[in-house]
Amino acid sequence: MNKLIDTARGVFLWVDDRLHLSKLYESTAGHHVPQSSGSWFYVFGSATLLCFMIQLATGIMLAMVYVPSAAEAYTTLEYLTFQQDLGWFLRGVHYWGSNFMVGIMLLHMTQVFLFGAYKYPREITWITGVILMVLTLGLAFTGQVMRFDEDAYWGLGIGVAIMGRVPFLGEQLVNMMLGGPIIASETLSRFFALHVFVLPGGVLAIVSIHLRMVLTKGINEYPRPGMLVRRETYDKEYAAILKKEGVPFFPKAISKDLVAAAIVIFGILACACFFGPKGPLGPPNPVQIDTLPRPDFYFLWIFAIAALMPDWMETVALLGGPVIIGLILFALPFFNGTGEKSWRRRPVAVLTVILTYVSLGLLTYLGNTSPWSPEMDAWKADLTPKKFLEGRAPLELQGSLVIQSMQCRNCHAIDGIGGSRGPDLADVGARLTKDQLIRQVIQGGGNMPAYGKNLTPDQVDAVVAYMVSLRTPGVAPARDSSQPGRPPME
Amino acid sequence: MNEEPTKPCACQAAPKKTSRRDFLLAAGFGLNAVAGALIGIPLVGYVLSSFFKPNKLGKISLGPVDNFPEGKTRFAHYKNPMHREWDGQTADIPCWVRRIKGDDFQVFAINCTHLGCPVRWFEESKLFMCPCHGGVFYEDGGHAAGPPPRGLYTYEVKVENGELFIMGGVIPNLSNQNV
């Protein structure tokens, strides 16, 4: 037995002497980290990298079947989803892997921000992280185009409309993005090259710098309130921490990363199996305009911003917003590179995170419900509840028909049924006087088109009569304030 | 280079003189700079070719004018004049044709001027509505409501021998407003 062990040891020493494996281990997986960093809060970075590895593996396999041609991409997507053995599984894992990657990356960034890990001397770690975030979002957007369906086509159209707003160079940038003056085959090929070569290559290159920084400057120690970072003393303090409580990352500090990795993989698998891959939706046929273009989950907040911003600031915000956010993120470790690390003593940082998450969450929710979009079929499909019809005069009933046939319901719900672009009409009679209603219908305004040219005077009369009747029983119609005290005239 | 001299050699005695090693290093950098430029410039040119190429419009027939009744707005589509064989369905571009009277036409691009989504025509209310952010346009393409910064894009229209032609082949956006 001892002889066997001796032989094995001899073989290992021989190999080690050639490949310097133990030295490699000491300077990589076995590098010393503060014991405090073996925390559940420190698992998100490795989990993001894990997601990327899963994306690489499944992406390569998808590329074995997928054809990046505008004429054939959709057919191969359907083939992958419904015919290719386990194609649905790969598409599902790749789709959910991307969602997990974006989500966990955000958690990672939040943790790094709250724990002050971007401060001296880890500026480059943070900056490469910001570049990785941009690359990851780029992968997410180009990946959406790979699923070359109706949403991909019109999503590209949205990209064109944003690029086209760039002053002076708009036209050239649009052509560069599309590979020509119009969305066509070269557009898909271009996005394919970005999605499978350029961006993943960029991620690999930048990740290597990101990880190199973890080895050279060390992982952030678990911050304690009151321990301030000073450029003059920090390096010595960190060395002291490592001396006192340093442990090799593998095997002493990796356990929670491993558990988190398993949870992530189980999570992606569960989503892929229970929910399956997304789409493809309808074919990328521009002539099929009966479509509701929506971006994937992670871009819904931008979709919402584009609807809710005041018109005058739209171009400035769409083009300048990303630049300003990018500059702030890049500059962060330089204007806030020292001092307190612990979030317990950084109220502004905590508030920033809360505000960002609440904004992103609300905008995503709004983007998902998109109340600003007209419901294109409401006018022919939505019912009018009985209580808004019974007991009404013929003129009022005629008005209800006009409201229906003139597509008013696409934007105006009645008691919650219909579009929600404009106000609900269920109690409009109690809010606006007859004169105000006539003015609103004919002249529009406040985000409503003017119907003056499209309605006959008789139709206007009928519509207004009907709307005056729309109010909760027992509630008086709205009263003209210039005629106080007089009973309302109907 | 195992025979590293231990005593001062000629090159150290006359430091201004370029050694063979220095020359080779400079030549190596220089040659590679030239080679890099020779291979790099065409690559950049290839990637940027679509950046510098000016847009050309093609003359496209939308069929006989009689297909479009007077006073009505009708859906039409055409083959992108610059299409490639492998464009598939993306070569078919839709538009809205409004025949005001006789040879007086307006042809609108399908793309909303806000963010490019396809607008839909509603004959009853005589409005174009956009499904993305609720942009609305009047029958003549004018901006009616919502976030779009301007009215619908219109194509240049020609009527020749009873046939309706437009000039197209470029996706309309705010940088090429006259498409």
Task: Describe it.
The complex is a heterodimer of chains A (490) and B (179). Chain A is mostly helical. Chain A has two domains: 28-369, Cytochrome Bc1 Complex, Chain C, CATH 1.20.810; 378-468, Cytochrome Bc1 Complex, Chain D, domain 2 (Orthogonal Bundle). Chain A has helices spanning 2-19, 21-27, 44-63, 73-82, 87-114, 123-146, 150-163, 170-178, 185-217, 234-245, 249-253, 255-274, 300-308, 314-335, 347-369, 378-381, 394-405, 408-411, 428-431, 434-443, 457-468, and strands spanning 32-34, 228-229, 246-248, 339-340. In chain A, the strands form two sheets. Chain A has a two-stranded antiparallel ribbon. A two-stranded antiparallel sheet of chain A has the order 2-4. Chain B is an alpha+beta fold and 179 residues long. Chain B has two domains: 10-52; 58-168, Rieske [2Fe-2S] iron-sulphur domain (Rieske Iron-sulfur Protein). Chain B contains two helices and ten strands, in the order ααββββββββββ. In chain B, a hairpin with a 2-residue loop joins strand 9 and strand 10 (163-168). At the A-B interface, helix 7, helix 8, helix 9, helix 13 and helix 18 of A face helix 2 and strand 3 of B.
Strand-pairing-aware structural class of chain B: alpha+beta
Number of strands of chain B: 10
Strand content of chain B: 25-35%
As a percent range, the share of strand residues of chain A is under 5%
Brief account:
In chain A, 61% of the residues lie in helices and 2% in strands.
Helices and strands, with pairings:
The complex is a heterodimer of chains A (490) and B (179).
Chain A: H1 2-19, H2 21-27, E1 32-34, H3 44-63, H4 73-82, H5 87-114, H6 123-146, H7 150-163, H8 170-178, H9 185-217, E2 228-229, H10 234-245, E3 246-248, H11 249-253, H12 255-274, H13 300-308, H14 314-335, E4 339-340, H15 347-369, H16 378-381, H17 394-405, H18 408-411, H19 428-431, H20 434-443, H21 457-468
Antiparallel strand pairs in A: 1-3, 2-4
Helix pairs in contact in A: 3-5, 3-12, 4-5, 5-6, 5-12, 6-9, 6-14, 7-8, 13-15, 17-21, 20-21
Chain B: H1 10-13, H2 20-52, E1 58-64, E2 72-79, E3 92-101, E4 104-109, E5 120-122, E6 127-129, E7 136-138, E8 143-145, E9 156-160, E10 163-168
Antiparallel strand pairs in B: 1-10, 2-3, 3-4, 5-6, 6-7, 7-8, 9-10
